Amino acid sequence: MGDRGDALWKRTCIRDFRPDDNEALQKLEKQCFQTDGNLKWHAEFDDFSQRARKYERHEIVVLEDTGAAPAKLYGVAAFGVKRVVFVGDAEVTVGHVFDIRLDPAYRGTGAARRLVAELRHRLEQQGCCCYYATIGEANIASLRINEPAAAVS
Q1: What digits encode the pLDDT tens for the residues 101-115?
Q2: Is this prediction's pTM over 0.85?
Q3: C-alpha dist (Å) from residue 131 to 14, 45, 80, 113
Q4: Most buried of 21, 31, 50, 123, CB within 10 angstroms?
Q5: Are the C-beta atoms of 76 and 61 separated by less than 8 Å?
């Protein structure tokens, strides 16, 4: 992570999404998808939390740089929780991570790894045994961050 990441983390706040975050998160989403062709799908939502609300249990977590003036949201992650029945009628709780966004200017700081660690902790608190995420094959950074294992406990 290095000095840049350490300095950033000292002024970073991880907190729950608030409705007044919506505008900043919509801008962040456009920054993250300006080149991969997925912006049209993401732009269909005028409320960032709309996707999360499709799940009865969900969480949206933001990274806020409190050292910036004014404070700046530079990352977000969201997940939903659902019950899944496997072969043999065993029922387990799993998480579906469907949004992880990081401002391109903050990439390479270790912030995404810390955000994923926070998600894993929260998924475990929700009783999830594991999670899954839909990641495009060209998104090497996300694949690497989630590669170690999708188990949360």
Answers
A1: 899 888 888 888 889
A2: no
A3: 20, 24, 10, 15
A4: 123
A5: yes
- ∠ CA(2), CA(76), CA(23), 5° rounding? 125
Report, in this order, helix, strand and coil percent for the chain, each rounded to 5. Answer: 40, 30, 30
State pLDDT tens for residues 111-140: 888 898 999 999 999 999 888 887 777 777
Q: How far apart are CA 121 and CA 106, in angstroms?
A: 22
Tokens of 28: 């962040």
113, two tokens: 């790894």
Between 5 and 109, where is the model more confident?
109
The SS3 call for residue 73 is: strand
Instruction: Give the total residue count for the chain.
Output: 153
Q: Is 134 left (phi over 0), alpha (psi -120 to 50) or beta?
A: beta
